């Protein structure tokens, strides 16, 4: 399927979704959000895709934010609707049944930082900059920034980033746990795809159960979380992948997982 604002490609069993608006630093407008909303279920249902990578076109930006020119004249009701749309899109990405990795190649500000945060984890080039500068525009984050940032880096650090509106560089993002790894720009995608390929070699039912257990458990107390894990663990023993994985281990060979 062709998109106006996205490029969707594949590397092995990894799908790469590129936000393709480099002339405006890949800013998110309504049309781009609608295309992301459209592509998410397609990727979920694609049996030839095990991992999704999201990145931005060009060398300057992952996504520099939501499109301010688009937002400037919105009414209160229109602004709320735009926020609801962004939250729906990002929540769908967050709940995708496959791992989603953000490859942050440049500015990830406002909606761009929020897009990165709805991914399962983030890798960044040393040129990346992260921030929620909305207070400088007289608004709050609208696509989940006040909620995910605090969950990822803690409320104190999140409030400093939110209240000051000041960006942080990739090394500081690594220090506070917002990203998992920082690379040179030239090696970012190779590093991300290498990690994605490692994930693709595992038992995919188990990978997906890990994701759902973590996500659901984060919304629960520890006792409920342990029940969620026990249910996922038990469910694995009904799969062919569990039998193949353990048999391969005992036979000292590489498992041939089928996703069943």
Structure description:
- This protein is globular.
- The chain is 48% helix and 16% strand.
- The chain has two domains: 195 residues, 2-enoyl-CoA Hydratase, Chain A, domain 1 (Alpha-Beta Complex), CATH 3.90.226.10; 47 residues, Lyase 2-enoyl-coa Hydratase, Chain  A, domain 2 (Orthogonal Bundle), CATH 1.10.12.
- The chain is of the alpha/beta class and 260 residues long.
- The protein has a six-stranded mixed beta sheet with strand order 1-2-3-5-7-10, sandwiched between helices.
* CATH architecture assignment name of the largest domain: Alpha-Beta Complex
How many β strands by DSSP?
Answer: 10
Strand content: 15-25%
Helix- and strand-based class? alpha/beta
How many domain modules?
Answer: 2
Radius of gyration: 19 Å
């Amino acid at each position: 399927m062709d998109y106006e604002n996205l490029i969707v490609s594949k590397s092995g069993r990894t799908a790469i979704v590129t936000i393709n608006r480099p002339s405006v630093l890949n800013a998110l407008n309504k049309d781009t959000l609608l295309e992301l909303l459209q592509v998410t279920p397609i990727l979920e249902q694609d049996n030839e895709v095990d991992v999704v990578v999201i990145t931005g076109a060009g060398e300057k930006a992952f996504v520099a934010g939501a499109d301010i020119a688009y937002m400037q004249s919105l009414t209160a009701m229109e602004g709320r609707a735009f926020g609801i749309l962004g939250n729906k899109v990002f929540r769908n990405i967050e709940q995708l049944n496959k791992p989603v990795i953000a490859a942050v190649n440049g500015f990830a500000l406002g909606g761009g930082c929020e897009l990165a945060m709805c991914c399962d984890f983030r890798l960044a080039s040393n040129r990346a900059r992260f921030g929620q500068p909305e207070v400088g525009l007289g608004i709050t984050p609208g696509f989940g920034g006040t909620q995910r940032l605090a969950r990822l880096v803690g409320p104190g650090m999140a409030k400093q980033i939110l209240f000051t509106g000041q960006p942080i560089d990739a090394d500081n993002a690594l220090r506070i746990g917002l990203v998992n790894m920082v690379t040179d720009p030239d090696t970012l995608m190779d590093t991300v795809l290498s990690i994605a390929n490692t994930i693709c070699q595992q038992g995919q039912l188990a990978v997906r159960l890990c994701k759902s257990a973590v996500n659901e458990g984060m919304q629960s107390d520890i006792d409920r979380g342990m029940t969620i894990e026990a249910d996922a663990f038990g469910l694995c023993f009904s799969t062919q992948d569990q039998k193949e994985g353990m048999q391969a281990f005992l036979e000292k060979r590489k498992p041939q997982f089928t996703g069943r």
